[in-house]
Amino acid sequence: GFMLSTIRTKIRRLISRDEDVDDFEEPQLFCENFRTHKAKEVETLEQRLHRMNQTPNLLHTACKHCDVEAVSYLLNNGADPNSTNAAGDTALHVVLGSVGRPTDQKIVQELLFHHANAELCNAAGDSPLLNACRYSKSSAISLLLAHHCDPNAANLINGDTPLHVISMNGDLGKCLTMLLQSGANAFVCNAAGKLPTEVIHATTCGISASTLQEALNHKYRLAIRNFLLALGRMDRPEYKLDQMMIQWMFG
């Protein structure tokens, strides 16, 4: 449309003058809100960027709003896929740092194709894989693991591995299975001395067997059972699960 044509023209002018696309301070032009020409919402985006103390970055904004076409255009015109904001987030962190959207996978593919470093950690100590695990982005997890990301790379501050993060926040079915199949180590403790099987206790023991059965896909039951049994945790009193849950997991 007209606005996309306008932004492309401005970017071409920047490129022709050898200016840095990453420093272009009009991120709102790639925002989904701008497509509806709502100036008020554009101002809100600018205010939000400044409130988060982030230098406006076109690529990050395009990733945040899951604009695949904009991401591809910027990368093809020299945008740095490894540039960071004030929080140390790269474009991969940005696209994986919120609830999943249908275009996440395509953007991750574009970034990896353009040599985004999937091992970089942000100021919170998280890698893109840890972000993906935190929000149960199974497609992104699969892409990152296929890109040879270390399934045991821990948070630089709290020592949580992808298994810890999945156990606390994520999908105990598909995501857990992918990590285990990729060599994730269930014997690694975090900085608090907790194993993944110990942090899973807090998220599962308050859930009834029937609720858990509905939440998890039947075909992943064996992987989950093996994970819980990996260190013999179910025989400790503080890790006892109710009989209904045990019967379901072993049935």
UniProtKB/TrEMBL annotation:
Give me the ANK repeat coordinates as residue ranges.
54-86, 158-191
In which domain of life is the source organism classified?
A: Eukaryota
Q: Name one Pfam family in it.
A: Ank_4
PROSITE patterns per the record?
ANK_REP_REGION, ANK_REPEAT
Which keywords fit this entry according to its UniProt record? ANK repeat, Repeat
Keyword Cell inner membrane among record annotations: no
The name of this protein is Uncharacterized protein
Native source species: Eutreptiella gymnastica
